[in-house]
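A.,

Following up on our hallway conversation. Structure tokens first:
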């Protein structure tokens, strides 16, 4: 399963234009938070994660 960032929508196969890596990832759910969307880590850690992108977290 390909994991997708809840912030910007990048995924295992399509990184952010400036590059990124997973800060949090749940392979079973298929979502996570990439390093370009680090502002969402706190929400992720408090179980506020969603299965769909939350919108552009970076410019």
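Then the amino acids I'd put at each of the 59 positions:
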């Amino acid at each position: 399963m390909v994991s997708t960032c809840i912030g910007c929508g990048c995924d295992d196969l399509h990184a952010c234009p400036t590059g990124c890596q997973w800060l949090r990832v749940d392979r079973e759910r298929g979502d996570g938070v990439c390093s370009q969307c680090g502002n969402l880590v706190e929400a992720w850690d408090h179980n506020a994660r969603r299965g769909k992108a939350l919108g552009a977290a970076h410019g």
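The chain has a mean pLDDT of 86. Curious whether your intuition agrees with the design.

B.
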